[in-house]
Amino acid sequence: MKDSPQDVYAKHLPYDYGYPLRGPEPMSGLPETYQDDGLQIGDVGIVDKNGQFDVLFNICKGSDNCLHDRRGVPENFQPTREGEVNHRDNAIPPGPIYSHGMTQILNPTEHCVDYQFHSSGRAGAILILPHGATSAELLSPEQFRKVAMKNALDWYEFAKKCYDDPHLDRSLYLITGFYKAPFWSLGSFNEHKDDTGTIEARRDDANPNVYLLKFSFYADWRCCRGDAGQSVNQTVFIVGFKITFNSWLPDPVVLSVKETETTWSKLVRLLKACFHRLYHFSGGYGQYAAMDVEHRPELSQPFHPSDIINRFLLSKNPNFKVAITHDNQWMDMMKGGLTDEDLLHEDRLETFLAPRYTISVDSGSENTTVFLQGKTRGAAEAVSSVVDPCDSSPGFEFSPPPTPPLDNPWIVITRIRAQHIHSGFKRMPVGFYVLVQTDGDQRRTQNKSVRLNDSSIEWEDVILLPSKASGEVRFTVYASFELEPMLGNGEVLYTSEAPVEELVSGTYLVLFSPGELGTAAPPSLLITLGRRYSNPAVVSSGDDSNQLDSEESSVIIRETNLGQEALLRYYNEYRREELENAVQHFECARRDCPLTHRFRAVVLVNLAKAMFISYRANPIGTNLNESIQLYRQALNLRGPGHPDRAATLLQLAQALLFCCETKDYAEPVAREIYELISQSQEFSQYSHESQAANLVLETLERCSVVYHGHFVGLDKFVRQLEDSTRVPPDGYFDIPQRLTNLSTMLWIRYQQRRNLSDLNRSLDLNERALQLLPACDPNRLPVLKTRSTALWELFEMDGDLSHLTALIVLDEEALRLIPDGHPERSYWVNNYKGHLAEMLECFGNAAVEAREYEEAIAQYFRAVTVLQSAHS
């Protein structure tokens, strides 16, 4: 049967904030005062197939509250204290939230279109919040769980009476937090015929607070129709406890799943088997009879991950009556790599549960309840059940892997899936691979390209682990900077070790430390293992295409690895001698690489990149034109269809763009950049190259506006740049450039209109960009320059000496970044002297006032010393 609108919307919208509701507005049957505020913490109810939350009662309100006038309250009802709540005003920033299979087009092709998206999947969802959303969340929901465990069956009986259904086939929801917005527009689609399509959003002429959506294919969409100034009562996401009762779970679940079915259709089959009442109900809290899933009633319970987890918990023991799971628990596992497909396989679900939770049981009352208890820090990694002493039922635990019949099987890695692998702040990768090392032996997977919206990377390489391995197995994730052929090792992103005795058949989860990337979700590898008892010679040992026999190639590889290592050390410490070493090693590799060698293009690109970075750090002694020429030679070697042509096109465009940023804007150079980027067929959708290409065009347009002074369409360009800052993932290396582009255009708009908010926003964006850039990174220089101009403007307006002090500190930082002979050094030296002279003038005749500015006094004496030495 067809999925309900809420099924599709909830399945495909990202779960970053909680469980999404397709019907954010309060139900019309609620009291008027309740409708004004919308859903509240403590509400108990269900989510219907249209995505609206039907409130039955609230556990924090008395039985005489107006909410309870219509339906009353459950038996034995006693209100509970709400507890401390965390409120946030800007919990979700304004803008769109959309499926992984969609990409925002930063330069909409249609007139009057505010947002445009490209979809590459047959299903997806989108939510646009013009004014963002506020949030409220219970800081400690544990008390609510205890109340639910004690009263769950009374609540269930009450719900059956409310819906006049003695065999209610729904779980209950207890809200502990929510996200609310005054306005919204949302849509979803499922199984549209074409693989690709477009989605457009424009502001409604009658109400600019909402967006009207237009799909190039059939889709379901709706928007808020409220007026400006309305209450913030539209609930777009909820978090809370899902309470499931064993009385409507079928036993056993019969699934006849065909191989051609998609993951989602399998999930729907599972949910339909779990959540529908059977034709022959046995009564009481007993189990339902077996059912044929080919003949089933309509699904009335929308998809929810907690329902599947609760079914898994209830299946552990037939005496359990209730299972309770909080949304934060499955959201935590999904951030760690859990997918919808993993929910279908108990062994995979256990793999994600085991490191985080124990299964706990409360049987102190008639409601024998099973739930997940978070592991405390330092707890043993092995998962054991916390069995209630009052429970006389048999104990249970996560099943250990089966013992093989032979004593010494070969352990084989059959699949590796990486989750949340980020490229870092330094360089743009074109691929990733995993190196597996044990007992002096090493094997690696294929080098795989990825797209920005890919939530995971999967390798199906078969890697054999030695049968007599002992100690630790090391897993290392590398970023590569070319796809074919790959030269050298690339850059190490993450490394972790696992005891070899834990690598047995089944799955094993490797969690990495986020390190400097600081990602919200920890990077991970899900390893699928098998056992081989046959001749191990037939087992593949991974991709060894990188191994070369000739002495000539060995020299090229050695020099390339030395150059990459020097470049990485430069990025870590920003010592210019490391940059010089990198250039020398890459130059040696080029010198030893024949013109017809298969690695010739890789060698040229490596040298061009190092020379380009060196020029940006210090233009003296480095020729930017030589770097550009090397990129052009490499591009000629990587013709149309070459897997690395797109990256080379982009690198050449970036080098040319730097000419427009630092030298006079030249129309021929700009045209060449447009021609390079216009080869859009070379940039696959959602790739790192595609995103970087959009950033090149934005930066080029920014340079054009500044150079020509063309301010027509300035507001639209600012909105485009605002959207651009929200496109990349958190921590992505190009965010500082996006912030700088927006900051510069806000400064330009301030100069045109003198709106102080633009000036303040420009400074805020400058500060954010500087926070993301390392202290010694030369890329801080253009950010400091824009910030210096804006701070001087503020000082001239209000005479606040704190601005002047900040300017002097900023000048000193810039001079530390710039070596002697740098073309911009004289600019910063003159700035520094001018600001010090201004400080001297301000304090020369105001000794009494100077006492109020201790830092300014120090600057005063420094100014005297500097100016005296300048005149001597």
UniProtKB/TrEMBL annotation:
InterPro entries: TPR-like_helical_dom_sf. This is Unplaced genomic scaffold scaffold_307, whole genome shotgun sequence. It comes from Pisolithus microcarpus 441. The lineage of its organism: Eukaryota, Fungi, Dikarya, Basidiomycota, Agaricomycotina.
